[in-house]
């Protein structure tokens, strides 16, 4: 028997955030069984931990359709679940995208701060942008020219596109099959759509067709990649805190905070999580 815990991450209330399944000891589960659990839950991702002694764990992530190399919100959910059992700690997670250290702290609730795999970014090609805009049913005029289209990575690839207005971001009605095809070809986990409220405050939405999900209400891996993208563009200083509001347009408000690691390409991503029944 393997206990499957359920949490929502990047929220302090059960009515917000992004749901994730968590199995704290997945030894004995096959790939097919983990995928079946994730599919049965229907959450965008679920995390499966394999204790290796002390505060070290191998961790694997599954969407309802496939394994994912790294997932931020399921990492936060798993870390909070661990924190409820072991208290404040620093845990070492070994993901398919590389090692991820997580600091678990306790105040009014339990908060987890992960340090992402190294981030990188490149400009999107003209063809990638053309097909993405067509699938999203956006025009070039819907983009904010201050933020060039890129494919950013901090464990997974994400196409990053800036909406010119909050209204454009709020009106999300895209061609699921066309975007899924493009993302499969590019190996992108989400398309990270955002609007800049200010230099360090952003609103985001993340279509997630590869996971069989229309939209992700909170995407920690994309937030890390996006923060690395901002630093690469010279729009963010080391140690500066970024606030990302996500999920509000789908009724699941989520709050993510990120900080570039000084002298490094990695990014810290912080959030709370709460159990759900």
Automatic annotation (TrEMBL):
InterPro entries: Phenazine_PhzF-like. Keywords: Isomerase. The keyword Heme does not apply. One of its GO terms (cellular component) is cytoplasm. Gene3D superfamilies: Diaminopimelate Epimerase, Chain A, domain 1. One of its GO terms (molecular function) is isomerase activity. It holds the Pfam family PhzC-PhzF. The active site is at 45. Belongs to the PhzF family. This is PhzF family phenazine biosynthesis protein. It comes from Nonomuraea dietziae.
